[in-house]
Amino acid sequence: MKIAIILGTRPEIIKMSPIIRECEKLGVDRYILHTGQHYSFEMDRVFFEDLKLALPEYNLDVGSGSHGEQTGKMLAEIEGILLKDMPDIVLIQGDTNTVLAGALAASKLHIRVGHVEAGLRSFDRSMPEEINRIVADHVSDYLFAPTENSKRHLLDEGIPENKICITGNTVVDAVYQNLEISKQTRHTLSKLDLEKGEYFLTTVHRAENTDKKDRLSSILIGFEQIYRKFRLPVVFPAHPRTVKMINKFRLKVPGGTKVIEPAGYLDFLQLEDGAKLILTDSGGLQEEACILGVPCITLRDNTERPETVDVGANIIAGVNGNIAHLAEKMTASETNWDNPYGIGNAAKLIINKILD
Could you tell me the pLDDT band of residue 173, with boundaries at 50, 70 and 90? Predict the structure, then answer.
């Protein structure tokens, strides 16, 4: 059994890290193909080293570009590598262009495809991620659904039940494993002069928020209202693109919002773990907040992680002026919800299923 693990973004590295470790633990023949969708491998090398992961055997460094251009480059180069190596199965994770290219390349070569985190749906096809995850699910042979809800979406779309396996989400494994590494190597809160439970944490990076002046302005106004109400800082590791759009629209970051450089993953885990509340438009961060027991407000109009809302860990706010009110509501709520994403053994279940 030879497994090809295809990834190209840092969230994919994070969520695949438990699977890579499980393969190493069991001595499974595997290799990693890094497409370089977000960053070149040289920029991501420290990421692999910090997480104590083996380095990729292949690095495509496709870089940025339009969806078609980027996916096309990856599709051609992935196909060439798979033709040379002919693994027994390709593993992909999530909803990126890397996932789409990896799934298409493997399926056309009649190589089995395993989709980790299958069955997520926002039901908003204006999002390119929604298209990617739907196509990947429908060409995959193994669909590793994190929850019953995800399985139900797949069944509703006519995917045979014998292809679907509920495993929980590898993000649980990743948070537990990597938070432990972080605590051994980082002192993030003290360096930023922060106290646990005495700050809010936010991330804003999706085009639906950053590329529309009214939405981005509403989010910044919400941060200002939160600071006035709680007198606690809003820590904002700002993506360069978000900073660029704030400047382009001539908006101002309000007082009480502490803009910092984008944090590395291990540092960011500690920021998440110590926050009073997280405000985000990231899907993965909704999950991580739920796992860590930190209340979350989603700065979007929908979510493909409805389980977080169902258990009371998350609320969908949009950007329509009620962010401060919802922050007050969420910080006053109980945080003893049941984690819907499993107990941290998803990687083991996935690899065992493949080997069986």
Answer: very high
Catalytic status, residue 205: yes
pTM assigned to the model: 0.87
* 112 DSSP β-pair partners: 89
Residue 209 and residue 201: Cα distance in Å, rounded? 17
Rounded Cα gap, residues 167 and 343, in angstroms: 10
CATH of domain 187-331: 3.40.50.2000
User: In CATH, which of 3.30.530.20, 3.40.50.2000, 3.30.70.890, 2.30.30.40 is domain 2-169+342-355?
Assistant: 3.40.50.2000
Nearest to residue 308, comparing CAs of 328, 273, 283, 277?
283
Same fold, 2-169+342-355 and 187-331: yes
Active-site residue, selected from the candidate residues 38, 67, 110, 205? 205
Strand order in the sheet with 142-145: 58-59, 29-34, 2-7, 89-93, 112-116, 142-145, 164-166
d(CA 266, CA 337): 25
Q: Tell me the domain boundaries of the chain.
A: 2-169+342-355, 187-331
Return the amino acid letter for 299: L
Residue-wise pLDDT for 85-132, tens only, equals 999 999 999 999 999 999 999 999 999 999 999 999 999 998 899 999
